[in-house]
């Protein structure tokens, strides 16, 4: 009886963590508020990742965790760092060209892109479920391309978001196949170094230069980005995957773009259109199909 209660409590806790992680990730568009403070994408991300790195470095020091890595681990972590740098930078660049809610919804095609890459590059069987997911997700993206006034989104904005989704998909695949034998703190310690330094270089090379947060509100948003959609979401995601499994966690991830859309509506005065609603449903459906199909295959292998 006691064991059953403990298991039930862990599932409830895991579910809450899954919801919390998705909502935390979905607050990424708050970084666009810093553009009103005169900051640019490179500067925003430099301060975000730099602060997050300092927090993780402090936690590792308290845990007395070794920073030692071998040559293979260095190459893998370098690859992960550059991929995450590219993904985050292109997403934040897109926030300047299109609504943050729309950009975050398009970004959510990354699980489908991951499945497609595994089928094309690693010769995994392209199932009907995967094919249907790809079709649904890109119909959803196509619907989002058309704006309420009959115009279209910025083509460059869409390209940037799709590059962000693609590089994040590759990041997930590299992370999964590399099977790094180290804590998530240690992985992110090295990944965030690339993200912080890379964005600093981008900012310095831009016409605007590296801009410092100069108001209390700008420091609030930088702190939020470093803690909530980065560290806090990471910790909750670990517990969610541990207690309820990867499939329910992936499905709950649908709350991520939904949160971003709500932020866009209430903070950026963006419109919630019929095309946006249908696009969200189609992209969510494609991700759920992928997640359920993946879970079914795992169950067959386990049996």
Count of individual beta strands: 0
Ends distance: 27 Å
> Major sheet, described briefly?
none
- Beta-strand level of the residues, as a percent range? under 5%
The number of helical elements comes to 12
Shape descriptor reads globular
Helix content: over 70%
Uncertain segments are 299-303
Structural class: mainly alpha
The tally of domains stands at 1
Task: Indicate the radius of gyration in whole angstroms.
Answer: 19 Å
What's the pLDDT, averaged over the residues? 87
One letter per element, helices H and strands E, the order comes to HHHHHHHHHHHH
Please characterize this protein's 3D structure.
With 303 residues, the protein is mainly α. The protein has helices spanning 2-25, 41-63, 71-94, 100-107, 110-120, 128-145, 155-178, 184-205, 216-244, 246-252, 255-268, 274-302. The chain has one domain (20-302). Helix 1 packs antiparallel against helix 9, helix 1 (2-25) packs across helix 10 (246-252) and helix 4 runs parallel beside helix 7 (155-178).
């Amino acid at each position: 009886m006691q064991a059953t209660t403990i298991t039930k409590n862990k599932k409830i806790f895991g579910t809450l963590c899954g919801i919390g992680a998705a909502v935390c990730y979905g607050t990424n568009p708050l970084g666009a508020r810093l553009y009103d403070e005169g900051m640019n994408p490179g500067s925003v991300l430099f301060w975000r990742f730099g602060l997050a790195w300092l927090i993780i470095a402090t936690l590792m020091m308290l845990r007395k965790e070794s920073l030692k890595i071998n040559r293979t681990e260095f190459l893998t972590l370098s690859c992960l760092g550059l991929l995450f740098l590219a993904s985050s930078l292109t997403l934040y660049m897109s926030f300047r060209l299109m609504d943050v809610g729309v950009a975050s919804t398009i970004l959510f095609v990354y699980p489908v892109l991951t499945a497609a890459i595994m089928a094309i590059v690693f010769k995994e069987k392209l199932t009907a479920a995967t094919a249907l997911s790809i079709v649904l997700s890109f119909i959803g993206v196509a619907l989002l391309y058309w704006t309420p006034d009959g115009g279209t989104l910025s083509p460059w904005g869409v390209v940037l978001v799709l590059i962000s989704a693609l590089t994040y998909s590759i990041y997930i695949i590299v992370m999964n196949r590399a099977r790094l034998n180290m804590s998530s703190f240690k992985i992110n310690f090295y990944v965030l170094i690339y993200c912080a330094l890379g964005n600093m270089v981008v900012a310095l090379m831009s016409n605007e230069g590296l801009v410092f947060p100069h108001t209390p509100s700008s420091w609030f948003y930088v702190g939020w980005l470093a803690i909530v959609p980065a560290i806090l979401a990471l910790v909750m995601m670990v517990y969610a995957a541990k207690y309820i499994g990867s499939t329910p966690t992936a499905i709950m991830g649908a709350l991520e773009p939904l949160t971003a859309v709500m932020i866009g509506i209430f903070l950026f005065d963006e419109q919630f259109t019929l095309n946006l609603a249908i696009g969200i449903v189609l992209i969510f459906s494609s991700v759920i199909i992928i997640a359920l199909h993946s879970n079914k295959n795992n169950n067959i292998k386990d049996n």
